[in-house]
Design a protein that fits this description.
Pfam families: Histone (PF00125)
Number of helices: 3
Shape: elongated
Biased composition (Basic residues): 7-110
Organism: Zoarces viviparus (Viviparous eelpout)
Strand content: 5-15%
GO molecular function, one term: DNA binding
Low-confidence stretches: 118-132, 137-148
Protein name: Core Histone H2A/H2B/H3 domain-containing protein
Length: 168
């Protein structure tokens, strides 16, 4: 009998504890809203005091430096004009030297083992190997191959230059 009475008393105590927890949560939410309003008022007072002190110090230092720089710039401009005239004469001489070098390199590229072109503007310029030429001109009959010499018709001089990689 004693065991049955103890079990009934424990069940009644659990119901009372649940009701007390719900009331405490509602009170905490109301207190948080009041704290936010107090923080905004303190920040506005600090910003106004700092701006007034900085503006007065910067204006006095800038006026003294500007007057000294203007006198130095006028003397430098006269010296620069004389130097530009000397540089232009040197550039013209360099361009003439580059043109002479390009003409010498083209003559050295000729190989005696490669076939020659006859009927083109440059008869000494080299074409690719014979096997490559046969595949290009089999259908059109533009050229006839005899041993290592290639004969091209006078109408097709521009086509011969394109194969070599030159500008037609």
């Amino acid at each position: 009998m004693f065991l049955l009475i103890r079990e009934k008393k424990k069940k009644k105590k659990k119901k009372k504890k649940k009701k007390k927890k719900k009331k405490k949560k509602k009170k905490k939410k109301k207190k948080k809203k009041k704290k936010k309003k107090k923080k905004k008022k303190k920040k506005k007072k600090k910003k106004k005091k700092k701006k007034k002190k900085k503006k007065k110090k910067k204006k006095k230092k800038k006026k003294k430096k500007k007057k000294k720089k203007k006198k130095k710039k006028k003397k430098k401009k006269k010296k620069k004009k004389k130097k530009k005239k000397k540089k232009k004469k040197k550039k013209k001489k360099k361009k003439k030297k580059k043109k002479k070098r390009k003409k010498k390199r083209k003559k050295k590229k000729r190989d005696p083992s490669l076939p020659e072109i006859h009927g083109a503007a440059d008869p000494q310029a080299a074409l690719p190997a014979e096997a490559y030429l046969v595949g290009l001109f089999e259908d059109t009959n533009l050229c006839a191959i005899h041993a290592k010499r290639v004969t091209i018709m006078p109408k097709d001089i521009q086509l011969a230059r394109r194969i070599r990689g030159e500008r037609a």
